[in-house]
Request: fold
Amino acid sequence: MNIIFVCTGNTCRSPMAEALFKSIAEKKGLDVTVRSAGVFASPNGKASPYAIEALFEKHIALNHVSSQLTEEDVEAADLILTMTNQHKQLIINQFGSHSDKVFTIKEYAAGVDEDVTDPFGGTLEVYRRSRDELEDLLNLLAEQLQKNKDR
Reply:
């Protein structure tokens, strides 16, 4: 399964989700390809230093360069998980023929209509909270994918 995580600038939430989920999927033996992109990303931007540090505390390396979500990304993905409803709507508006595979991460993993808080500009503690929120959601996602695999 090819999964892409999407946020705004692809420097905080989606790269953290990508790195966290790669780690979780590897531990659980899930056969997934994972990447991230942004709906308004500058090409070749760096990940936030606090995002890097928050993941480093979990022994997860974040070597990341930002990228803009492209039509090729959308077509190649089996599942597109956004951080907010606004990201979801932007993608559906731009790539409407693929709307059946676009969900917010909270909608898909936890069944709730809420956004993942944006840590951009916050303290390291804010980034830790975002990391932990994502980690909980990604563990739920992994459980769902594991159940689907076992069927």
